[in-house]
Amino acid sequence: MDEGPRTGAVSGTPVLHRWNAVLWVLLGLLPPAIATADDPTATRTGVLVLLGAFSLSYALAALFPDQPYLGPHGHLYVLALGMGGVSYLMGGGAALYVFSQPHFWIYAAGPAAAIGFSALAAIVVVAGDLLRAGPDGWWTELTTGNVVAVPLAYAGSVLLGLAVRRMTAESEARARQLADELAGARRRLADIEAESLRRQGATEERERLAREIHDTLAQGFASIIVLAEAARTALAADPGRTAQQLRSIENTARENFAEARALVGAGPHSGLTPGPVSLTLRRTLDRFAEDTGITLNAELGEVSCDQPTRIALLRCLQESLANVRKHAGASTVAVVLAQHPYGIELEVTDDGGGFVVEESRGFGLDGMRKRLAELGGELTVTSSVGDGTLVLAVLPSKGQV
Questions:
Q1: For 208, what's the count of Cα atoms within 13 Å in the CB-facing half-sphere?
Q2: Which of 172, 248, 254, 359 is the most buried (most CB within 10 A)?
């Protein structure tokens, strides 16, 4: 009984504690107070003083849960010893003892302390009853009334208290186990999410590299193949044309080499040279006209844009021209670059054979759409068999950098 107060239990289940307080007042304290109404003044005063002391110590236990004497520990001593005084004054205190049992299990530091305080209260209640009865009435008291009820109540309270403690301990253990399982599940979920994000990042990076390779290296190699085939064909008949095509092959190979180095180094300015974006597009168009002999009509206005937009415009033009070279069979290509209040437009039109847009599954068009979408832009392709093709790229203006 010398252990400290079990404050954790006091603050753990406030609803149950309030119900216990209500029942204790109604069934434990009020009956003795009412029963002494017709008793002598000394008896009535003594009982009321003790009941008031119980109430005061209970209030102090709630107000000072960490104090060794004013807190729960002191309340249990006041309650256990004071019930002996009530039993002596009234000639019985079994009802008060029974309805005070929850206090011992709520406020004691542990099961051993609860059993000890309950035993102390039982002893003093029986002793108070026997002292009032005197030696002549001991036998009667020992075989009837409070002296019999109190030990039975003590035994029942011990059994019930231990059972409740065991169930509470099992419930707390189960709650801790569930909390540990929940924490483990959260950790596993976080690991899965991190792995998913890592895989998503890797997938996006692979898609980005595939798009860059398609828009740069793959197109360059395709140009080299076409130029090499043309040069071989014209080698004997037109040496001048062959020399020009060989220079184009050399230039394209150099550009591919630079693109490859930029991809490996993750260079942000791949394919772009200093100056307005219109000059970069003009050089690309001149090379295309030189390599293919297709007539070009270009209206390249001055536009202000950031570096990602410059790259997107260049890639869209390169992909559109590559499609003209490989698929269109066109004789004329028109290119218009213009800036409007709502954004920048790049329009590429050819007079080739056209195609059914809905049936197109090319990687290039999908790559252009994704590239523009990442910048808040949009790609529109209009074509039909025999009527040529129009490719319109629209990007929001984001300022010059």
A1: 12
A2: 248
Handedness of CA 61, 62, 66, 67 (dihedral sign): negative
Tell me the C-alpha distance between 273 and 275, whole Å. Answer: 6
**Average model confidence (pLDDT) for the chain?**
78
Residue 292, both tokens: 């293919």
Sheet of 378-383: strand order equals: 295-300, 332-340, 343-350, 389-395, 378-383
For residues 86 and 96, the answer to whether their CB atoms sit within 8 Å is yes
Write the DSSP assignment of 131-170 as a string of letters. Answer: HHH-GGGHHHHHHSTHHHHHHHHHHHHHHHHHHHHHHHHH
Q: Give this prediction's pTM.
A: 0.43
Residue 275 carries which DSSP code?
S
3-class secondary-structure state, position 343 = strand
How far is it, in rounded angstroms, from Cα 323 to Cα 215? Answer: 11
Residue 339 neighbours by CB under 8 Å, 6+ apart: 301, 302, 303, 304, 345, 397
End-to-end CA distance of the chain: 80
Q: Quick one: tokens of 5? A: 């107060």
